[in-house]
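so my prof wants the structure for this chain in the tokens format not the other one, which i didnt know existed until like an hour ago. anyway here's the sequence
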Amino acid sequence: MHAFWRTSALTLLIFTNVLMSESSCTDLNQPTQNSSSPMTQVTTTVSVQIGTKALLCCPFIPLTKAVLITWMTTPRGQSSCMIVYKVDTRETNETTCRNRSITWASTPDHSPDLQISAVALQHEGHYSCETVAPEGNFLTVYDLQVLVAPEVTLFPGRNRTAVCEAIGGKPAAQISWTPDGDCVTKNESHSNGTLTVRSTCYWEQKDMSTVSCFVSHSTGNHTLFIELYQDTTSTAPSLLTILYVKMVLLGILLLIVGFAFFQKRNYTRT
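here's what i got, hopefully its the right format
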């Protein structure tokens, strides 16, 4: 009887890591074993950017030689789904499969590959394809990881500081500064699995005016520039003081003009 999650001490494990593009198909297992060999398993970590299309491949076995093809999908935090295709009768059976965005890439009699039309965070998890053939059983396991590009911002702080943020990324972005400063970096986790990285830097050198932050991420890198405020803490009170003095002087001037006007009016009546 066919057993999907069949493992043994003789199982051959091959681990790989792949960054998948929108149109690529990861086909890493092309075994040429005889029936006396153990089951060959390929375990692949696949990184896909959110919103793009993912194509997951079964072990390379000509369909004319395959007997049974089974896909098991297990997104994290969700129920599993099993899709079984019997080659000789061209029958497809599904068990607890509710996500309609996960389908055959073509028709199973032409291609056993699986397609996710638009990858979302809830698609992250494990996807496995087992092909049963006279030569043996071949298993490919994918650990699908979803990448989310962070929103990058850079703004000035007080007293010769600057703040660089990579908001809502997955995985966490890396932030570095040019030139180096006295920096504090904090990570904030969100309920959807994304993270915000916030780096605050201070530069003591008074002759330094422009700094840049470099944000490194799996989805792409960003460099932002900003000019430091020379002395924000002293500038703000200075502006308020000037405004206050101007208002006082204006008030005194109005009092003098008003007093002169009433004096003139009283003299005219007399």
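also thought this was worth mentioning. Residues 232-269 form the longest helix (38 residues).
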